[in-house]
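User: If you would, consider this record:
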Amino acid sequence: MLVTRTLEELREALASLESSKGKDGGLVPTMGALHEGHGALMRVARLSKAWVAATIFVNPLQFNRPDDLARYPRREEEDFRLLQEHGVDLVFAPSPEVVFPQDWVAPDLDLNGLDLPWEGAFRPGHFKGVATVVSRLLDLIPCANLYMGLKDYQQCLVVERLLHLRKAMLGLPGPAMVQVPTVRDADGLALSSRNLLLTPDQLARAKGIARTGPG
């Protein structure tokens, strides 16, 4: 598994993969603190027989509170092990300065209001930040397929809109989005990196919500 942190390392790794495995590959974007939900994305990506890249990048643009950004779980060593176990060919784990250098200009993305309701109403700017970083990562890692989990359904809608904009408005070639079903634990709770931040009481209540159904 090739581990890259700079743009130069990333370019060299991509050139090596394209030389040995072909131009088309797949991308699994993550913010780390990986779990078997991410593992499902990687397993589906591996079925394509193309190379698979994953990113570990805690994107500051999608956090509207500094304390939330600071608390987000980070466990890179464990993440690298899981990525290797799932046969990922390349991991890009950059710093914010590498992804968003001073001379970089953010694209003006019209998300057609998809970023505003539901979770977006409670986290202003969150989905704009998601769309911006995904667009940036696709500039850096051109790929044929982009793998996303349906657990974050609104995020999938936003990224679908982004891919449409890149193709129709910006004239950029774009990947196909491959949406992978939600992975849940034995109690029915959707696996999420943020579950690591829950207190025992909050975790118990979350599992109770997952068990709630009609009747």
